[in-house]
Amino acid sequence: MMNNQTLLTITNKQNTHRNNTGLVSRLAKRSIFRNTRRTLLTVLLISCSLTAILFTDAFVRGMVNTMVKISTQTFLGEGQIHQKGFREANDIDLYIKDTPRLYQQLDTVSEIQAYAPRVLAGAMTSSSENVASAIIYGVDANKEASVSKLKLAMTQGDYLSGVDGEIILGEQLADLLEISLGDRLVVTVSEAHGGDLSQALFRVSGLFSFNERTMDIGMAFINLSQGQTLLNITGVHEIALRLQELNQADDKTLAFWTVLNTEQLETLSWQELVPQLSSMLAMTEYSTLIVSVIMYLLVCLGLINTMFMSIFERQTEFGILLAIGTRSKQLFYQIMLEGLFIGLLSVVLGLLLALVLCYWGSIVGIDYSELEMSGLTLNEPIYLVLDVSSFALMGLATLAITLISCIYPALHAARLQPSSAMRKTL
Amino acid sequence: MTILADTVADVAITKKTDSNKSTVIETSGLCREFGKGDTLVKALSDANITIERGEFTAIIGPSGSGKSTLLQLIGGLDTPSSGDVFLDNKNISHMSGTELSDFRRDHIGFIFQAYNLIPVLSARENIEYIMLLQGISAPERKKRVDMLMHAVGLDGLGERRPTELSGGQQQRVAVARAMVSKPSIILADEPTANLDSKTGADLLDMMKDLNEKQNMTFVFSTHDPKIMERAKRIIRLVDGCVVDDERRD
Predict the structure, then answer these.
(1) Nearest chain A Cα to B134, which residue?
(2) Chain A neighbors of B125, CB-CB under 8 A
(3) Numbers of helices and strands, H then E, in chain A
(4) ipTM of the complex
(5) A208 — phi, psi (to 5°)?
(6) B207-221 pLDDT, tens per residue?
(7) Which end of chain B is less packed: N or C, by CB atoms within 10 Å?
């Protein structure tokens, strides 16, 4: 059984621990507001850095989303089906032949929202004034409208209606050929199965603009059936896929990817179709990391400087505290606690600022119209994407960085010798 | 000033000693050097001092004679270059940092020239601080602080921060803080240097009263003639050496 002396010792120890915790916390809280201006400036530095990091993160997420959307929704689709070997050889003889059965199959895949069959070939387009090379696409007008933005990109005239002789051109191609709506145009292609030249006369029924130079100067669209006739094929070269969800393009475990990749067919996601864009986007995501590292470095240096200024100002006071019996580790905890309070204030303020700024950016968007990145024109605003996990992670990281920055000043304070800290006095 | 002595009778050290004249401070071959080589300065050389319980001692000497250095070494605020310091028969020269902190907390009261209160704490909290470190219960802390605040004539000023108190009031708080932990030794570094003569004299009377009634040991470092008048013993230092040790019984 414990005797009274032991109980008294335990009670005293518990009292000491409770008292010391309260005391250190009280001193820390009051000390950080001793120089309110400096504390507020430090809090602003940290919170603005956190806001900048979160804004960058939200911006990068938004930019990636926008670029993927522009890339896939404009014309590419989230996936494409080709006859095996077509993409490598660009050989018009390698086309998908049994299209009815494939269409039937595609209709049953729940992940596929829409698909658009296409024939395509390099062509020579000749007007009465000029000649230009372009890629001629034969498309199913209705199906194409549900996969790409061709119909939405029309700036003059009419979209394809399925009637032979219609052709729609990019505005810049029309300028190059010096033709306008209603003018005649001859398209010359090399036929499949032998390569004989095949020509057809078209009348310009519409002009489009995707706001992307390579597309607007290098593409022309005719109806699918006439394209097949012109190229002397019965199938299609390409089927663009619109998926229910964008992330289904990443998920190769979905059954349709296996089903649609056969001995004859090759079905690829947008990442595989334009790997350079995929790599570029992956690199873009590093920008958040780079910004974070720079910002956190500034935070560390700023905070270490602030804490040292604060410590040097209070050196005599620390000397007194040590002289009257404060243990070094209590001083260490006090400085760390001051850092924690500054960190908490900064994180709350930084998260609030970031939330307001990113929310505004997610509603209004940031207009980068006409800016071209990696061959992709940003023809719609970038809407910032708020990510809760980023907010939580960066908030915690900021708090951790703040505490880490305080270790050195806190150790410095804890190692002070009372006599040198107090200098002139006892 | 009798009030303080009576108050501290409740609060003050009640350590049982065999004799009122036991040795409380002893230094042996105490040296303190600063710098190296050509810049070496001997702040204190071979100081051998013995101070007994209840003495009211003034260490005097010109500026730079080593008074403050001696007091710092006695108080465990600095480490001697050689020699030993014994307080209450314990050699503090070889104690670890934590042991020394605890020893200072429990055995030594400090009064500084520039008051040196903690600016973010109120007068009450400044006095209470050491008791919090000691783990003393809240009711006991309140009782002691109330008594000491009354004793040093600061009733009603407990919630004021140091900046809201006059120099004399701050020094009274500092005296109360030094007393509250029931130390066996009080070390005071020119405690009256920043006070006007009347306040200084009142403060000294208060400390003298404590010394006489409670047998508390006081060691002053000073230039103040008022302290020298009241001191029972005067140790004179010149260039770091003890050149005179006068007792006035």
Answers:
(1) A16
(2) 26
(3) 15, 12
(4) 0.85
(5) -130, 165
(6) 888 788 878 899 999
(7) C
